[in-house]
Amino acid sequence: GAGVSQSPRYKVAKRGQDVALRCDPISGHVSLFWYQQALGQGPEFLTYFQNEAQLDKSGLPSDRFFAERPEGSVSTLKIQRTQQEDSAVYLCASSLAAGRLGNEQFFGPGTRLTVL
Amino acid sequence: AQSVTQLGSHVSVSEGALVLLRCNYSSSVPPYLFWYVQYPNQGLQLLLKYTSAATLVKGINGFEAEFKKSETSFHLTKPSAHMSDAAEYFCAVSYNSGGYQKVTFGTGTKLQVIP
After folding, report:
1. Which of the residues A80, A82, A86, B40 has the least number of beta carbons within 10 Å of its own beta carbon?
2. pLDDT tens readout for residues B67-104
3. Cβ contacts (< 8 Å) between A104 and chain B: which residues?
4. Which chain B residues contact residue A58 at CB under 8 A?
5. Distance between CA A47 and CA A18 in Å, rounded?
6. Would the CB atoms of A56 and B102 count as touching at under 8 Å?
7. Burial of B79 per CB tally in 10 Å (0-12, 13-18, 19+)
């Protein structure tokens, strides 16, 4: 079946522009995560959705970052007034259940954002 | 707090040699541990996971990892490296955070395989 897809795969933005990154999780997956992966680093947690509810946004770096999942499937991560330090790969992951430890997260290919 | 530390940001091995990638964890409760692999310009793919069943865990592509509580380690090994193993490897720990599973990743180890 189809995996997690993300679009666009690459995005170049001028400093100050707004960007929107899309994630299509695996159909039926309850949990959806966004991560930020800076160059040479591991993924860092940004936010978590259980269906349409955003249960944890503790990893969002500033109020310029906003995420939504209005119908419990597709999610969008929006970054307003982008800054150079926002340049990173943004990864989306989904998993089938919510609270079970040991659940595998399935990752999309990521969106590489470059802010000039 | 749960965390993992990966020793060595870059590891080089010859084709056919043993692969050993090191990961130590810190956890106040029995951990759930993972190894993921990331190929260039791709997302992360699960190699294997430890969920407190067997301490020796076998994964895909001939990789395995052993959970050693006394050493708080979960090192990844493969007896014979292939050129196709060249990638970045991430160790991760998951824990319950307010009713859902949160995952913390290490900083990654880039594996180079020399022909």
Report:
1. B40
2. 999 999 999 999 999 999 999 999 999 887 777 888 89
3. 34, 46, 49
4. none
5. 19
6. yes
7. exposed
